[in-house]
Amino acid sequence: AQKITQTQPGMFVQEKEAVTLDCTYDTSDPSYGLFWYKQPSSGEMIFLIYQGSYDQQNATEGRYSLNFQKARKSANLVISASQLGDSAMYFCAMRVPNQGGKLIFGQGTELSVKP
Amino acid sequence: DAGITQSPRHKVTETGTPVTLRCHQTENHRYMYWYRQDPGHGLRLIHYSYGVKDTDKGEVSDGYSVSRSKTEDFLLTLESATSSQTSVYFCAISELGGATRTGELFFGEGSRLTVL
Question: How confident is the model at residue B2 (pLDDT cuts 50, 70, 90)?
Fold first, then answer.
């Protein structure tokens, strides 16, 4: 069975510092996709970054990068130069093939950025 | 932003009453999903649809039914609401193999349901 695990319920980071949010996954399918979403206190779900299982390079989107370690089945999100607006809940998710494109989500990590 | 509208956005109801949440999209995406969000559980899939009249169960489908009679509308029904169904419900859409390589899900704003 596919599973996503986020072991950090909450984290603090100082403004302008980098932070890593952990995500591990479990699947027996060789083809899968990994996603990170941000949910600010206003409640909307914002797509941040995607990594395909066959992608050779780690995904990057602006200040977000995904540290993809396939052998360890980890897909950690790295946020560089944290900003106050980065304070939010962050969800890691996985899609496996032939299941209607659905995503399986982790429990989430609440990030608080301190000024 | 993807055109996804959920209604109602907030609802308070009593145990045993039927409730229907509506998701309407203007993107003509094939896939639609209903998730519920609860503290400590992230988002869990209730049901999803891969086309008109084509639906399938997710991991927490008990007590819920869905219908999709048109591409743009996906309805979630609680036949007899229980307090355990108090939650925030999100609708999402995606288009695998479409313009976006990733096929990410686009989410609605959520519907907060309280069952007393």
Answer: low
